[in-house]
C-alpha cells in the first residue's frame, strides 16, 4: 500500500517529524458529523480525527456528569470506604488525611478537607516532605498520626505502603486508601483500598486520577448521608479541584474525566475558591480558564510547593477560606515556581549532556548525578522525553541512594515496567502509572537497573514508527485564525492526555518579527502573502533547533504547526499560535 502523501509535503521538519494530514476517511467522516450537527466543517473534522461518530457527536460536545458519572459502588471497596468515612463523621472521630505533595495529592486532600468542614468536622492534614520523607506513607509518620487519630485516609498514595499502613493499624487507627497508582500483587490490610488500578477491580475506571477517585468516594458518602436524612455538602462546587488534578496529573480525557474537566472549568470561571482565584491572579490569567491554563499556568505553581518548598502549601492553598491567606500562599508558590525553573534549567543542561555522551539510540534515555534536586527530576525527565522521543529517567543521588522520576511516550507502559523491576529486586522501590513513575535505587545499582528497564521497554519502543509523525488537523491562514474560530474549537474539548488539542498548519508565511523572550522562548509575528498577520510564541525554542531556525529565516517562506488559543493580554482579544514545529516552505 502506498504511503499517504505528507501534509504540505513536509517529510522531515526542523524537529525531524513527518507531517500527516486528516486523510480521506477522516474528511468523509468529518463531513458527516458537520451535517449531523449543523456545525462548521472544521469542527466535524476535529471530532472525526478523535474517533467521534456522527451519532455520538452531540453527546461528545456536551459531556455531563448526569450521563458519564459511574456508580461509585462499581469500584472495589468503595461501599466499605464510604461507610467508614460517614461513620467517623457521625461519631465525631478524629480524622487525619495523608496526602501526596503534587497537584493531584493536594487537590484530593482539599476535597476531603472541604467536605468534612461543610459537615462541621476538621481534619489533620499531613503531607510528607519530598526530600526528607519521599513519596507516600512512612512508618514514623503513620505511627504518630495513629496515636492521635481514629481514622487515617491516605489519598493519592498508600497502595504499596504495606509496612506503614500496618504500623498505623497496630497503633490503633483504622486506615483507608483512595488512590490510582498501579497496585502490587497484594494490598495493605486495612479498612478499605479504593483504587481502580488494583488487580481485582473491574470498574473500568483506571483512567481516574486520585482526585477523581476521592470525588466518587464523596458521592458515595453523600448517598449514605441522604439515606439517613442528613445534609450533604455540595460536590458540584468541588469540581474545580477535580478538573485541576485531572489535567495536572495528565489523566486521559476520556469518559467521566471529560465531564470532570468541562464542568470543573465552568466552576473555576466563577472564581469562588479563594486559592484558585489568588493563583489565577498571580499567574495573570485574565481569560476564563482552559485546560491549557490548568496544565501550564496553575498546576506548575501548585506543584512548586511540594517540589522545592513546603510540602503542604498546595493543599493549604486549595482548601483555605481566607482570601488573605490564599494571596500569601499564591505569592510564595509563584516565587518558588520561579526558583524551580532556575534549578530545572541547570539540571536539564547537565542531564542532556549525560544522555548525549551515553547515546540516545536505545529504548530508554537516562541520567543520574549527585546533588540533583529531587523536586525537579520529574520535569527534567519530561523534557528529555520530548527532546529524544524516548522514555526518560532522571535520578538524583544522595547518601548512596538514587531517587528518580520517569516519563514515558505514547504506547509504552512505563509504570508496569518500573513496578516489575521493584518486584524483581533491581529497585528498592518503584511504581506509578502508564505515563509516569517514581523509583528508588541503590547508587551502585543504577547502571544495571537502567539496563534492565531498557530491556523491558525495548519491544514497545521498537514497535513505534521510526519517523515521528506530527498529526495535523488542517491548514489555517493567518487571517482566518480568529477568536471565534478558537472558541468553536474549544467546544470539541477539553483537550489533554488521550485527547490531543487540535493542531493546525499555518502554510507559507513569512516571519515578519522575531524576538527572544526569557532564556529560551521566541515571540513571532507571521504574515502571509495576502497581508494576514498572526502573533505566535515558540516555548523553549532555543533548547533545540526550532529557535535558531525561526530566528534566522531571512524572510524565506516557512510552514508552521501548532495550537491556536485566545490571547487577552492588554485587553485586546486575538488569536495566537503556540508553535510546535516548522519546516521550510517548498
UniProtKB/TrEMBL annotation:
<dbReference type="GO" id="GO:0006310">
    <property type="term" value="P:DNA recombination"/>
</dbReference>
<dbReference type="InterPro" id="IPR004610">
    <property type="entry name" value="RecJ"/>
</dbReference>
<feature type="domain" description="RecJ OB">
    <location>
        <begin position="472"/>
        <end position="581"/>
    </location>
</feature>
<dbReference type="InterPro" id="IPR003156">
    <property type="entry name" value="DHHA1_dom"/>
</dbReference>
<protein>
    <recommendedName>
        <fullName>Single-stranded-DNA-specific exonuclease RecJ</fullName>
    </recommendedName>
</protein>
<dbReference type="InterPro" id="IPR051673">
    <property type="entry name" value="SSDNA_exonuclease_RecJ"/>
</dbReference>
<keyword id="KW-0540">Nuclease</keyword>
<feature type="domain" description="DDH">
    <location>
        <begin position="94"/>
        <end position="246"/>
    </location>
</feature>
<dbReference type="InterPro" id="IPR041122">
    <property type="entry name" value="RecJ_OB"/>
</dbReference>
<dbReference type="Pfam" id="PF02272">
    <property type="entry name" value="DHHA1"/>
</dbReference>
<dbReference type="GO" id="GO:0008409">
    <property type="term" value="F:5'-3' exonuclease activity"/>
</dbReference>
<dbReference type="GO" id="GO:0003676">
    <property type="term" value="F:nucleic acid binding"/>
</dbReference>
<dbReference type="InterPro" id="IPR038763">
    <property type="entry name" value="DHH_sf"/>
</dbReference>
<keyword id="KW-0378">Hydrolase</keyword>
<dbReference type="InterPro" id="IPR001667">
    <property type="entry name" value="DDH_dom"/>
</dbReference>
<dbReference type="Pfam" id="PF17768">
    <property type="entry name" value="RecJ_OB"/>
</dbReference>
<feature type="coiled-coil region">
    <location>
        <begin position="326"/>
        <end position="353"/>
    </location>
</feature>
<keyword id="KW-0269">Exonuclease</keyword>
<comment type="similarity">
    <text>Belongs to the RecJ family.</text>
</comment>
<dbReference type="Pfam" id="PF01368">
    <property type="entry name" value="DHH"/>
</dbReference>
<dbReference type="GO" id="GO:0006281">
    <property type="term" value="P:DNA repair"/>
</dbReference>
<keyword id="KW-0175">Coiled coil</keyword>
<feature type="domain" description="DHHA1">
    <location>
        <begin position="366"/>
        <end position="457"/>
    </location>
</feature>
Amino acid at each position: 500500500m502506498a504511503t499517504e502523501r505528507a501534509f504540505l509535503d513536509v517529510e522531515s521538519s526542523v524537529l525531524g517529524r513527518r507531517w500527516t494530514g486528516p486523510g480521506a476517511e477522516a474528511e468523509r467522516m468529518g463531513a458527516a458529523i458537520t451535517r449531523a450537527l449543523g456545525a462548521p466543517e472544521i469542527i466535524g473534522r476535529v471530532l472525526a480525527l478523535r474517533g467521534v461518530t456522527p451519532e455520538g457527536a452531540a453527546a461528545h460536545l456536551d459531556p455531563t456528569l448526569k450521563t458519564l458519572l459511574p456508580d461509585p459502588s462499581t469500584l472495589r471497596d468503595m461501599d466499605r470506604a464510604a461507610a467508614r468515612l460517614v461513620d467517623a463523621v457521625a461519631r465525631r472521630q478524629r480524622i487525619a488525611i495523608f496526602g501526596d505533595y503534587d497537584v493531584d495529592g493536594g487537590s484530593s486532600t482539599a476535597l476531603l478537607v472541604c467536605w468534612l468542614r461543610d459537615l462541621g468536622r476538621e481534619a489533620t492534614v499531613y503531607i510528607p516532605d519530598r526530600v526528607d520523607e519521599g513519596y507516600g506513607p512512612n512508618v514514623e509518620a503513620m505511627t504518630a498520626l495513629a496515636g492521635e487519630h481514629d481514622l487515617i485516609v491516605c489519598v493519592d498514595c498508600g497502595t504499596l505502603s504495606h509496612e506503614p499502613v500496618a504500623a498505623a493499624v497496630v497503633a490503633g487507627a483504622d486506615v483507608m486508601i483512595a488512590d490510582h497508582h498501579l497496585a502490587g500483587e497484594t494490598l495493605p490490610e486495612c479498612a478499605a483500598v479504593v483504587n481502580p488500578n488494583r488487580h481485582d477491580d473491574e470498574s473500568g475506571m483506571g483512567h481516574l486520577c486520585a482526585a477523581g477517585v476521592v470525588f466518587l468516594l464523596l458521592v458515595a458518602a453523600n448517598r449514605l448521608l441522604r439515606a439517613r436524612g442528613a445534609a450533604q455538602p455540595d460536590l458540584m462546587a468541588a469540581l474545580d479541584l477535580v478538573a485541576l488534578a485531572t489535567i495536572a496529573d495528565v489523566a486521559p480525557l476520556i469518559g467521566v474525566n471529560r465531564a470532570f474537566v468541562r464542568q470543573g472549568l465552568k466552576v473555576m470561571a466563577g472564581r469562588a475558591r479563594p486559592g484558585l482565584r489568588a493563583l489565577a491572579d498571580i499567574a495573570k490569567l485574565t481569560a476564563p480558564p482552559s485546560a491549557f491554563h490548568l496544565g501550564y499556568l496553575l498546576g506548575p505553581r501548585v506543584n512548586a510547593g511540594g517540589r522545592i518548598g513546603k510540602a503542604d502549601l498546595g493543599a493549604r492553598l486549595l482548601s483555605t477560606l481566607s482570601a488573605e491567606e490564599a494571596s500569601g500562599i499564591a505569592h510564595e508558590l509563584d516565587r518558588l515556581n520561579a526558583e524551580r525553573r532556575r534549578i530545572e534549567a541547570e539540571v536539564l543542561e547537565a542531564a542532556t549532556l549525560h544522555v548525549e555522551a551515553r547515546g540516545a539510540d536505545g529504548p530508554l534515555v537516562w541520567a543520574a548525578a549527585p546533588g540533583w534536586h529531587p523536586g525537579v527530576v520529574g520535569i527534567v525527565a519530561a523534557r528529555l522525553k520530548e527532546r529524544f522521543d524516548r522514555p526518560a529517567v532522571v535520578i538524583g543521588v544522595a547518601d548512596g541512594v538514587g531517587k528518580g522520576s520517569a516519563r514515558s511516550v505514547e504506547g509504552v507502559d512505563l509504570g508496569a515496567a518500573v513496578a516489575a523491576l521493584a518486584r524483581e529486586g533491581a529497585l528498592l522501590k518503584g511504581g506509578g502509572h502508564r505515563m509516569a513513575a517514581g523509583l528508588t535505587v541503590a547508587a551502585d545499582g543504577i547502571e544495571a537497573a537502567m539496563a534492565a528497564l531498557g530491556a523491558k521497554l525495548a519491544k514497545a519502543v521498537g514497535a513505534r514508527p521510526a519517523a515521528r509523525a506530527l498529526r495535523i488537523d488542517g491548514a489555517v491562514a493567518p487571517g482566518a485564525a480568529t477568536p471565534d474560530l478558537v472558541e468553536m474549537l474549544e467546544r470539541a474539548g477539553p483537550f489533554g492526555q488521550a485527547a490531543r488539542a487540535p493542531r493546525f498548519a499555518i502554510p507559507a508565511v513569512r516571519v515578519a518579527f522575531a524576538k527572544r523572550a526569557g532564556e529560551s522562548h521566541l515571540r513571532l509575528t507571521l504574515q502571509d502573502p495576502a497581508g494576514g498577520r498572526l502573533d505566535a510564541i515558540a516555548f523553549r525554542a532555543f533548547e533545540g533547533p526550532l529557535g535558531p531556525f525561526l530566528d534566522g529565516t531571512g524572510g524565506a517562506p516557512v510552514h508552521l504547526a501548532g495550537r491556536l488559543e485566545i490571547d487577552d493580554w492588554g485587553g485586546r482579544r486575538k488569536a495566537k499560535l503556540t508553535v510546535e514545529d516548522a519546516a521550510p516552505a517548498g
